[in-house]
Amino acid sequence: MIDQHFAGDAACASCHPKQAAAQRRSGHSRTAVAMSDSDFATELLAGQPYPDSRRPQTFEFTSHSNRFMVRDVDDPGLPALPATWLLGSGTHAQTPIFVDQQAQRGVEMRWSFLANRDGIGLTPEHEKFDQYEAKSLQCYGRPMDAGDVRSCLGCHTTVGPPAQLPIQNDLYVANVGCERCHGPRKQHALLAHQGRGEESKPLVQYASAEAYIDACAQCHRDESSVSPTAQPHELVRFQPYGLKRSRCYLESPDKLTCSTCHDPHDTVSHDRTVYIQQCQQCHQSGHDSLCTANPQGDCIDCHMPATEWTAGIAFHDHEIRIHEALAPKHSTPQVKP
């Protein structure tokens, strides 16, 4: 099915070199790799066993038949487990998972690569799983059913087996490539090489700002997939969720999308000036929307502050609003007459 309908990133690059080069710089281009082929695996195999910071366990890493294996040295009777995939771009973290194709289940490993430590540490949010059942998959991390595995791999790959087929590792196309957002384009690529590319119409078109954001929200999440019990510091991970709650979005019908500020192909820019200039396209002198507190200030620090999620990992809050706790810090004192 994949070979029949999907062209692959290389085919797209031949006609769209600028976008392809940008995509290769992005985190999307490196968000899934076979664990055994990863730099992280190489580092772990050359290093020492990892003592869990919250459990009486120590994990040892070995390679066997080109498989990266992990075992708990404190429980010799517990079988070693292979780490199948390493998921995440590494901008913040990369987490290994085990996929059991026979049982159609998996495990999110308890240890990850953490960029802010430049090394191994507790997988984010695994402090919730300190209690575990001996001799079970819980010993290695968070057990996942088939739906969990499909969800994880579905957001870190371009395409995988459809729901009616079993999970099969070799049917996943690693990383988020062109056709994850643009749809299968093999027919388009074939026609393009004949000079007839326009005959193959786009399979994916975003008729509204909401539809555009919904495409990103398939993985970055919005109100349809965020837990109602999520805490504010957890919600900052989910940019579409926050953006859709913002007055900037709600009062600018069909104008504000993720790509208003972010190049959808390239890596996330850290040029604060670019973002401030984008805010000032609407919030400028002569408009009711001008920021009266500090019109020449840093919009991002005040209205989209970086907020720690967990393990020192922070995200900018995309619910654009006045944060009352930050207002005194960023406001310019008004001179009394």
Describe the structure.
This protein has 2 domains: 126 residues, no CATH class; 122 residues, no CATH class. The protein is built from 14 helices and 15 strands. The strands form 4 sheets. Strands 1, 6, 7, 8, 9, 10 and 11 form a 7-stranded antiparallel beta sheet that branches. A hairpin with a 4-residue loop joins strand 9 and strand 10. The longest helix is centred in the middle third of the chain and has 12 residues. This is Cytochrome c-552/4 domain-containing protein. It comes from Rosistilla oblonga. Keywords: Signal.
Key phrases:
Cytochrome c-552/4 domain-containing protein; 27% helix; alpha+beta; 14 helices; 337 residues; 2 domains; signal
Give a brief outline of the structure.
The chain is of the alpha+beta class and 337 residues long.
Structural category is: alpha+beta
Number of domains: 2
The multimeric state of the shown protein is: single chain
Shape: globular
Distance between the termini: 74 Å
- Average pLDDT confidence is 92
Low-confidence stretches: 333-337
The value of Rg in angstroms is: 23 Å
Using DSSP, what is the number of strands?
15
The portion of residues assigned to helices is 25-40%
Total helical segments? 14
Secondary-structure element sequence?
A: HHHEHEEEEEEEEEEHEEHHHHHHHHEEH
- The fraction of residues assigned to DSSP E strands is 15-25%
Biggest beta sheet summary: 7 strands, antiparallel
